[in-house]
C-alpha cells in the first residue's frame, strides 16, 4: 500500500497537478470562509473548468475544494459565529467565545493545527484501511443507523452549556424543525405551509439564523464597541506549552471518531464533530469550562470533522458511491470525464485512485502552510469596528443563503431563526442542540421506519444484528453512567449546601 | 448564596421561557393532529410529530416548574430592540427585492438599512459606506464568483 | 473571473463564439431547473447553456431553484414572461409531478412551451451478482413468497419508485418498496444486502455492474437499449408492453412567439448535433436526441396518464 501511495505522490508532485491541487484547496478555503457559500457552490462553479482537464486533475482540484472549505468554514465560525455546516456549529461553541475574549488568533491556530492533524489521520486511514472501512460501512444498514443516531443523541444531550433539561428540550425542538417537509417514507407533507417548505428547512438558514443573525441583533446597536485590539504577534497566537499539552488527547480522540464516522455514507462529519465534542466534555475534568472558549473543546471536533472529510472519500473512491451531495458532484465530474466510478476504479485507474489520495496528503500540508500566515490577516479583520463589520456580514449572509437555492423563502427563514435564536438566548436556551436535533432527527426517523419496513416490524433486529447490538449496549452504558454521575453530583451539592 | 431579598421577577415572567416552549409544543400537536399516526412498527407520517409535540409540552411543563421553584436566575436579558428592528428590516428588504431588482441594488439597500441600527451613523456615512460595500460585494459575488444571480435586473 | 482564469490555463480552449446581429436574443438568457446545483439536471443545463450561448452569442445563465420535486421551479417558470429569455430544463419528473401533486400552482401541459427533448434514458433492474439467474427468476421468487423481495428506490414518488410499482402491478408480484435518499443510498443498501433489487439509471448501476458486483437483470425500455444490447427488456420477458423511458428536455413559459421558438429550437438542434455535447449527454447515461415541440408535449401527456394510473393503483399518497 505504501508503494501505491508513493505512486500517487509521484502523480501529485507533477507541477501542473500540484498547481491545481493548490488552486483547489486555496479556493475551497477562501469560499469556505464566506458564510452560506460552501463547497457545493464552489464545486459547481468550477465544474465547467473540469471539462478542460483530465479526470485525475479534475478530481484532485474538486476534492481540494471540499476539504479546503472545511478549513475555511472554521474561520467564519471562530471569528464571526457564522457556521456554514453542521460540523462548524460545534466549532462556534468554543471558537467564538475565544474570539470574543480577544484570543481569536489562538483559536485559529489551534483549529488549523487540529484540522491538519485530523486530516492527516484521515489520510492515513484512507491509505491503510480503505477496504476494511468500506466493508464495515456496508454493514451499516437501517437498524445500525437508527441505533447510531440514538447513541449520538444521548451522547450529545450532554452538549449544552446550561441545564440538562433545557438542552434536551432544544434537541427535541430541532427534531421538530427537521420534520418540516415531505415525509421521506410516505411523501406525506408535514408542516408545509408554503410549497417552498416541501423539501424542508435549509440547514444553512437554520445555522446562519440561530448563530450568525442572532449575534448581530444582539451587537448591532450596542453603542461604540471599539475594534477589538487583538494581538497579531505570532507569540500570542501560538498556544503556551501548558495549553498545547491539553490538546494532544482531544486531537487523537477527535481524529479517531472522525475517521470512523466519515466513512459512513451520508452521516459523516456532523455526527463526528458533535460526538467528539460530547466526548471531550464527558472526559474533561473541567466540564464547566466548556462553552467559554475551552481549547480541547475546539481541538477535538475540529480534528474530527477534518478526519471525516478525508475518510468521507472512502465510499466514493472504493465503491463509486457518493456519501453526500458534494461527493455526488465530484463523481459527476468523473462521469463527465468518461470514467465510471465503481469498485474497479482502484484497479483500473490506480493513478487516479492513489493520486487523489496522495493529493489529500499534499493538500493538507498546503492548507497548513497557507493558514498559519493568514491567521494574522483574519485577526486584523477583527480590528475593524463592529459597526462597520455587521452590515457587510448581513449582506454576506443574505447573498449566501439566497444563492444556496435561489430562494427568497430561505432568506426570510434565516431572519426568523435569527430572531428565534435571539429570544432563545434571552431565555437561556442554547442553539447548538437545536442543530443537532435538526440533523439527527430525520436520520433517526427515516432509518427507524425503514428498518421496520424491511424487517416487517420486528424489533429484535436491533439486538440480533451485531453492530446494532453493540451500539445499543453503548447507549445503555452511557445512560447508566449519566444517571450514576448525576446522583453523585446531587449528593455532592447536597453536602455542600448543608 | 443569593440574597433572599433580591427582587424576584414576576411569576409570569419566570414562567415565560417554558411558556413559549409549551406554546410551540401545542402548535405542533394541533397542526399534526390529523396526520396519519400508524403504530410503532408501522409508523405513519404523524407518529413522530405527535411524539415530539408531547415531549416538548412535557419538557416545557418541567421547565416552568423548575423556573418557578428555583430562586432568582430565571431573569431574561433586556431586549435589543434597535438591532432587532433594523437587522430585520435589512434582511426583509433584501429578500423582497432581490428577485426583481437584482443583486447589486439589494445589497446596497441591505447595507444602508442595517447601518441605521448604529447610533452614530450619519446619512453621508451611510451612503458612502453602502456604496463601497456594494462595490465590494459586486466584485466578490458577481465578478469573481459568478454566482448565477443577476446583478441588475435586465 | 476565477473560472475564466482557470479555463484559460490549459490552452485547450476553443475560442471566441461568433456573434451576429438578430432580434433575439439581445441580452442574457437563462435556463432554470428545479434540482440541486451540480446534479445531473444542473450539468445538462450547463452543457446546453454553453452550447446555446456559443451559438446565439449571448450568455446563458443556469439558475437552480430546487424544491418539491422540481415543482417550485416549474411554478416559477410558468409565471415568468414568455419572451424566450427564460427556459426551463425539464425532466421525466415533470410528468410524475403532474400525476402526483394535488394542487400544482401551474398546468403541467398548457402553461409551458415545449422546445425539444435533449435525451432519453431507461432504468435498469439490478441485483447482487449471482442472486437471481434472470428477471424471470426474480419475479418467480416474488410470486412464490409475496413480500419477500425488497426493492430499494431513490425516494417516494421518484420515477424509479413508480417504475418499481408498475413492475409489481404488471407482473402481479408483490414487492416491498423501500425509500432511500437518492439512488446512491439505495445502491449502498443493495451492496450491503439490505434490499434485493434496485431500479435506477445507468449512472447509478453500471459502475457496479462492470465490476461484477451487480447483475443487470432487465431494462425498462420497450426495445433493448443500444448501450447494453445483452440486457433483456421487461417487455420481452416478464411484462409485455412495459415501456418506461425517462427524458430531459427544454421548455419555456407558455406563449413564446413562434419565431423565438424557432430560433431556440434550431439552436438546440445544432447543439445536439455537436459530438462533444452528444458525448457529455451520453456520459450521463442518456441517449442524446432532440424532438419537435409536439413530440415532447405528446410524450409528457402520455406519461402523465401512465403515472396517474400507477399512483392510483399502488395507493401512493398524493400531495
UniProtKB/TrEMBL annotation, chain A:
Ranges annotated as spanning the membrane: 20-47, 106-138, 145-162, 168-189, 201-221, 257-279, 319-340, 352-377, 389-405, 462-483
Keywords, comma-separated and alphabetical: Membrane, Transmembrane, Transmembrane helix
Q: Which InterPro entries match?
A: DUF112_TM (IPR002823)
- DUF112 domain: which residues? 18-436
Q: One matching Pfam family, short form? A: TctA
This one is known as: TctA family transporter
Give the organism, scientific name: Aliiruegeria lutimaris
From TrEMBL, chain B:
Transmembrane helix as UniProt keyword: yes
- Which domain of life does the UniProt lineage start with? Bacteria
State the InterPro entries in the record. Answer: DUF1468
Residue spans crossing the bilayer: 18-35, 47-68, 80-97, 126-145
- Chloroplast as a keyword of this entry, yes or no, is no
Q: Which part of the chain is the DUF1468 domain?
A: 18-150
Instruction: Kindly state which keywords UniProt assigns to this record, in alphabetical order.
Output: Membrane, Transmembrane, Transmembrane helix
Q: Spell out the protein name for this chain.
A: Tripartite tricarboxylate transporter TctB family protein
TrEMBL record, chain C:
Which terms are listed as keywords in the entry? Answer: Receptor, Signal
Source domain of life: Bacteria
Q: Which InterPro entries match?
A: BUG (IPR005064), Bug_dom1 (IPR042100)
One Pfam family name is TctC
Q: Which residues form the signal peptide?
A: 1-21
Entry's PANTHER family?
Answer: BLR1237 PROTEIN, TRICARBOXYLATE-BINDING PROTEIN
The family annotation for this protein states: Belongs to the UPF0065 (bug) family.
Q: What is this protein called?
A: Tripartite-type tricarboxylate transporter, receptor component TctC
Q: Which organism is it from?
A: Aliiruegeria lutimaris
Amino acid at each position: 500500500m505504501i508503494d501505491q501511495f508513493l505512486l500517487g505522490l509521484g502523480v501529485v508532485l507533477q507541477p501542473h497537478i500540484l498547481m491545481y491541487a493548490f488552486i483547489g484547496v486555496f479556493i475551497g478555503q477562501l469560499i469556505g470562509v464566506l458564510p452560506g457559500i460552501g463547497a457545493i457552490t464552489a464545486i459547481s462553479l468550477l465544474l465547467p473548468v473540469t471539462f478542460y482537464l483530465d479526470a485525475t486533475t479534475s478530481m484532485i482540484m474538486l476534492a481540494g475544494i471540499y476539504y479546503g472549505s472545511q478549513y475555511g468554514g472554521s474561520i467564519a465560525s471562530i471569528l464571526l459565529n457564522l457556521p456554514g455546516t453542521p460540523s462548524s456549529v460545534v466549532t462556534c461553541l468554543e471558537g467564538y467565545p475565544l474570539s470574543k475574549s480577544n484570543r481569536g488568533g489562538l483559536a485559529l491556530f489551534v483549529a488549523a493545527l487540529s484540522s491538519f492533524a485530523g486530516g492527516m489521520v484521515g489520510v492515513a486511514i484512507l491509505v491503510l484501511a480503505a477496504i476494511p472501512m468500506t466493508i464495515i460501512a456496508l454493514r451499516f444498514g437501517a437498524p445500525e443507523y437508527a441505533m447510531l443516531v440514538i447513541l449520538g443523541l444521548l451522547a450529545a444531550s450532554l452538549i449544552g452549556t446550561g441545564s440538562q433539561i433545557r438542552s434536551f428540550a432544544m434537541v427535541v425542538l430541532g427534531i421538530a424543525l427537521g420534520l418540516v417537509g415531505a415525509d421521506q417514507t410516505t411523501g406525506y407533507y408535514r408542516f408545509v405551509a408554503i410549497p417552498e417548505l416541501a423539501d424542508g428547512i435549509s440547514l444553512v438558514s437554520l445555522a446562519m439564523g440561530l448563530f450568525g443573525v442572532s449575534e448581530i441583533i444582539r451587537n448591532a446597536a450596542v453603542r461604540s464597541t471599539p475594534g477589538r485590539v487583538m494581538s497579531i504577534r505570532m507569540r500570542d497566537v501560538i498556544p503556551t506549552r501548558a495549553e498545547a499539552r491539553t490538546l494532544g488527547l482531544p486531537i487523537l480522540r477527535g481524529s479517531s471518531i472522525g475517521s470512523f464516522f466519515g466513512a459512513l455514507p451520508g452521516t459523516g462529519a456532523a455526527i463526528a464533530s458533535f460526538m467528539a465534542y460530547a466526548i471531550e466534555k464527558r472526559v474533561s475534568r473541567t466540564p464547566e469550562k466548556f462553552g467559554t472558549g475551552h481549547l480541547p473543546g475546539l481541538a477535538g471536533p475540529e480534528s474530527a470533522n477534518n478526519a471525516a472529510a478525508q475518510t468521507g472519500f472512502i465510499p466514493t473512491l472504493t465503491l463509486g458511491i457518493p456519501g453526500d451531495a458534494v461527493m455526488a458532484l465530484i463523481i459527476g465530474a468523473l462521469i463527465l470525464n468518461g470514467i465510471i466510478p465503481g469498485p474497479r476504479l482502484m484497479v483500473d485507474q490506480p493513478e487516479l485512485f492513489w493520486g487523489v489520495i496522495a493529493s489529500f496528503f499534499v493538500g493538507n500540508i498546503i492548507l497548513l502552510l497557507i493558514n498559519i500566515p493568514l491567521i494574522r490577516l483574519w485577526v486584523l479583520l477583527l480590528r475593524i469596528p463592529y459597526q462597520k463589520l455587521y452590515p457587510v456580514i448581513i449582506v454576506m449572509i443574505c447573498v449566501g443563503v439566497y444563492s444556496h437555492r435561489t430562494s427568497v423563502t430561505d432568506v426570510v427563514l434565516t431572519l426568523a431563526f435569527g430572531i428565534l435564536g435571539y429570544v432563545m438566548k434571552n431565555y437561556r436556551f442554547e442553539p447548538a442542540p437545536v442543530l443537532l436535533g435538526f440533523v439527527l432527527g430525520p436520520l433517526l426517523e427515516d432509518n427507524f421506519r425503514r428498518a421496520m419496513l424491511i424487517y416487517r416490524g420486528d424489533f429484535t433486529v436491533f439486538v440480533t444484528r451485531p453492530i446494532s447490538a453493540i451500539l445499543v449496549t453503548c447507549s445503555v452504558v452511557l445512560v447508566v453512567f449519566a444517571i450514576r454521575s448525576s446522583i453523585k453530583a446531587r449528593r455532592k451539592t447536597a453536602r455542600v449546601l448543608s | 448564596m443569593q440574597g433572599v431579598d433580591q427582587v424576584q421577577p414576576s411569576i409570569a415572567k419566570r414562567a415565560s421561557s417554558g411558556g413559549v416552549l409549551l406554546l410551540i409544543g401545542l402548535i405542533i400537536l394541533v397542526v399534526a393532529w390529523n396526520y396519519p399516526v400508524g403504530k410503532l412498527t408501522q409508523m405513519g407520517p404523524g407518529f413522530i410529530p405527535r411524539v415530539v409535540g408531547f415531549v416538548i409540552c412535557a419538557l416545557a411543563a418541567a421547565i416552568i416548574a423548575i423556573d418557578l421553584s428555583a430562586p432568582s436566575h430565571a431573569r431574561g436579558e433586556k431586549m435589543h430592540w434597535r438591532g432587532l428592528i433594523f437587522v430585520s428590516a435589512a434582511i426583509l428588504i433584501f429578500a423582497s427585492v432581490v428577485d426583481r431588482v437584482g443583486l447589486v441594488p439589494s445589497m446596497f439597500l441591505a447595507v444602508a438599512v442595517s447601518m441605521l441600527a448604529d447610533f452614530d451613523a450619519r446619512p453621508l456615512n451611510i451612503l458612502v459606506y453602502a456604496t463601497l460595500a456594494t462595490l465590494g460585494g459586486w466584485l466578490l459575488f458577481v465578478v469573481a464568483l459568478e454566482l448565477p444571480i443577476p446583478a441588475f435586473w435586465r | 473571473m476565477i473560472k475564466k482564469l482557470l479555463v484559460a490555463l490549459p490552452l485547450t480552449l476553443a475560442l471566441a463564439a461568433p456573434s451576429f446581429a438578430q432580434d433575439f436574443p439581445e441580452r442574457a438568457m437563462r435556463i432554470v431547473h428545479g434540482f440541486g446545483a451540480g446534479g445531473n439536471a444542473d450539468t445538462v443545463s450547463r452543457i446546453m447553456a454553453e452550447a446555446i450561448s456559443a451559438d446565439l452569442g449571448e450568455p446563458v445563465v443556469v439558475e437552480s431553484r430546487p424544491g418539491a420535486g422540481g415543482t417550485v421551479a416549474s411554478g416559477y417558470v410558468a409565471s415568468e414572461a414568455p419572451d424566450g429569455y427564460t427556459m426551463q430544463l425539464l425532466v421525466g419528473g415533470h410528468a410524475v409531478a403532474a400525476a402526483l401533486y394535488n394542487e400544482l400552482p401551474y398546468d403541467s401541459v398548457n402553461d409551458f412551451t415545449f422546445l425539444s427533448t435533449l435525451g432519453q434514458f431507461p432504468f435498469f433492474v439490478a441485483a447482487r451478482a449471482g442472486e437471481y439467474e434472470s428477471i424471470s427468476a426474480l419475479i418467480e421468487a416474488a410470486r412464490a413468497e409475496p413480500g419477500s423481495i425488497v426493492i430499494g428506490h431513490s425516494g417516494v414518488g421518484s420515477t424509479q419508485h413508480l417504475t418499481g410499482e408498475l413492475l409489481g402491478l404488471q407482473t402481479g408480484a408483490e414487492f416491498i418498496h423501500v425509500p432511500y435518499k437518492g439512488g446512491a443510498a439505495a445502491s449502498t443498501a443493495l451492496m450491503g444486502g439490505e434490499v434485493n433489487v434496485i431500479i435506477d439509471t445507468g449512472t447509478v448501476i453500471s459502475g457496479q455492474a462492470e465490476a461484477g458486483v451487480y447483475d443487470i437483470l432487465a431494462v425498462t425500455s420497450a426495445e433493448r437499449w443500444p448501450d447494453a444490447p445483452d440486457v433483456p427488456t421487461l417487455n420481452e420477458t416478464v411484462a409485455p408492453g412495459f415501456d418506461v423511458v425517462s427524458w430531459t428536455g427544454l421548455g419555456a413559459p407558455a406563449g413564446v412567439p413562434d419565431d423565438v421558438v424557432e430560433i431556440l429550437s434550431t439552436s438546440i438542434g445544432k447543439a445536439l448535433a455537436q459530438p462533444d455535447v452528444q458525448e457529455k449527454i451520453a456520459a450521463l447515461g442518456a441517449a442524446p436526441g432532440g424532438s419537435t415541440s409536439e413530440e415532447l408535449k405528446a410524450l409528457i401527456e402520455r406519461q402523465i396518464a401512465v403515472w396517474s394510473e400507477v399512483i392510483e393503483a399502488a395507493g401512493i399518497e398524493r400531495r
